[in-house]
């Protein structure tokens, strides 16, 4: 280390004596806070949501997929505290920003949460602090947006304080991989900042990769998500084309997957959900325009995936028509509201658009989701619905069941036995040997 301030911070990190503040205690920030705590650090959790602070103080879970043990451990520990106030952050040696980066109405980056968080950190910034941004964003955000806010304090990056980027790699609901087993990327605004961030994460996860700078880390995160978005769009397009040929795309994917090289399986669905895949590719699209470039491949993938809810509804209408029923007046049960299986996260879920399209067509729409008792207010949708019990009576009174999310907790044998029509967007019914329902894949 070339400065005394950096050397002192490095020593505190190496000995786990450093205090780390995590800004944003949601799907990204809370697992990170837990991992930092497990690594021996004192952790301060910050969030503007009072209900989260109260749950953390009581040891009560508000993220179902994380279970209750993490919340109880944090509540019982003298090395963890949760707050809505910025003053305690002055005690932190490291401040990590884990805040949302949504899109605006015209698919432009909305960095308000990043900039407001950076402004709050600037208000308490002192010599010897390391600040790390984990939010997914376009290349240049850490240097062009966060750095000037922190530097407005008069402190100098790389000398007085340090700034780096390390993209989150959370996959909510993935039970087979613990936080410490997921490799991390780290890129600094300068060499010292990168080295300090590398030292911090090396105490928390097994594998840390130090990249050339923050921009490489930002771009790598976008590539990871664009890779998924493009390949999902490919199989979604294949699904639509092959259905006209009476070929099952799921059988085709299974057949292609027998090749031991050059192929990786991606699966079609009713549309993209979550906070990453439907949003992050457009951060690159927006930034590319600054350089007079277009991202045709990325935008085309976005268009294909965005069309899937409408495609699902068209399959529902066609399937009902085959049973001499109109969507207008039919009762449709949506099975699964969360954007992916076995979690309660509804952010950007395609189920919301499917429900609205069916309602527009005159359908009476209800839903069942074992992980979502009530649909919360969403950025684009206000559905105000609560989950129906999945019973023989519910299914018998339904004209069509639409499987949007294939939760493991759902009794698909019951669905097959008691339903007359099932539109399956996830191939969830494929394993059933006997069913009374007509199964239509979408």
Provide key terms for this protein.
442 residues, alpha/beta, Rossmann fold, 3 domains, 8-stranded mixed beta sheet, 15 helices, 39% helix, elongated
What's the CATH topology label of the largest domain? Rossmann fold
Strand content: 5-15%
The main sheet comes to: 8 strands, mixed
CATH superfamily of the largest domain: NAD(P)-binding Rossmann-like Domain
What is the strand arrangement across the widest sheet? Answer: 3-2-1-4-5-6-7-8
Mean pLDDT over the full residue set: 94
Report the span from N to C terminus: 58 Å
Order of helices and strands: HEHEHHEEHEHEEHEHHHHHEHEHEHEE
CATH architecture term of the largest domain: 3-Layer(aba) Sandwich
Instruction: Count the beta strands.
Output: 13
User: Which parts are unreliable, with pLDDT below 50 for 5 consecutive residues or more?
Assistant: none
Shape: elongated
What's the helical proportion of residues?
Answer: 25-40%
Number of structurally distinct domains = 3
Q: Provide a count of the helices.
A: 15
Category from helices, strands and their pairing: alpha/beta
Compute the CA-based radius of gyration: 24 Å
What top-tier CATH class of the largest domain fits best? Answer: Alpha Beta
């Amino acid at each position: 280390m070339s400065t005394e301030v950096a050397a002192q911070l490095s020593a505190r990190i190496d000995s786990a004596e450093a205090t780390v503040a995590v800004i944003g205690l949601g799907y990204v920030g809370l697992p990170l806070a837990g991992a930092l705590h497990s690594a021996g650090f004192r952790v301060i959790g910050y969030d503007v949501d009072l209900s989260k602070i109260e749950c953390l103080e009581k040891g009560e879970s508000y993220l179902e997929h994380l279970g209750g043990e993490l919340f109880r451990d944090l509540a019982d520990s003298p090395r963890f505290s949760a707050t809505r106030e910025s003053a305690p952050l002055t005690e932190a040696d490291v401040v990590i920003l884990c805040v949302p980066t949504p899109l605006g109405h015209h698919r432009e980056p909305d960095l308000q949460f990043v900039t407001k968080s950076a402004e709050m950190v600037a208000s308490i910034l002192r010599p010897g602090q390391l600040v790390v941004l984990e939010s997914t964003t376009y290349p240049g955000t850490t240097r062009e947006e966060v750095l000037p806010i922190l530097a407005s304090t008069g402190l100098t990056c790389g000398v007085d304080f340090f700034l780096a980027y390390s993209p989150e790699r959370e996959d909510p609901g993935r039970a087979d991989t613990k936080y410490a087993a997921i490799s991390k990327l780290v890129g600094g605004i300068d060499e010292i900042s990168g080295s300090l961030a590398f030292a911090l994460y090396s105490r928390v996860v097994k594998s840390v990769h130090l990249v050339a700078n923050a921009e490489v880390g930002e771009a790598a995160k976008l590539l990871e998500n664009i890779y998924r978005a493009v390949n999902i769009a490919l199989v979604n397009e294949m699904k639509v084309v092959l259905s006209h040929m009476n070929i099952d795309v799921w059988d085709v994917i299974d057949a292609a997957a027998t090749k031991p090289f050059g192929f990786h399986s991606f699966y079609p669905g009713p549309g993209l959900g979550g906070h990453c895949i439907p949003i992050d590719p457009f951060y690159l699209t927006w930034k590319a325009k600054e350089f007079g470039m277009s991202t045709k491949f990325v935008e085309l993938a976005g268009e294909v995936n965005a069309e899937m809810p409408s495609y699902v509804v068209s399959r529902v209408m066609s399937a009902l028509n085959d049973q001499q029923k109109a969507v207008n007046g039919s009762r449709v049960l949506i099975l699964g509201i969360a954007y992916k299986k076995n979690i309660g996260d509804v952010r950007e879920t395609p189920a919301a658009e499917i429900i609205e399209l069916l309602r527009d067509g005159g359908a009476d729409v209800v839903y069942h989701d074992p992980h979502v008792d009530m649909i919360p207010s969403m950025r684009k949708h206000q559905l105000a619905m609560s989950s129906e019990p999945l019973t023989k009576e519910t299914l018998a009174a339904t004209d069509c069941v639409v499987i949007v999310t294939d939760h493991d907790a759902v009794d698909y044998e019951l669905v097959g036995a008691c339903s007359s029509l099932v539109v399956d967007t996830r191939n969830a019914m494929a394993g059933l040997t006997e069913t009374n329902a007509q199964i239509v894949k979408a």
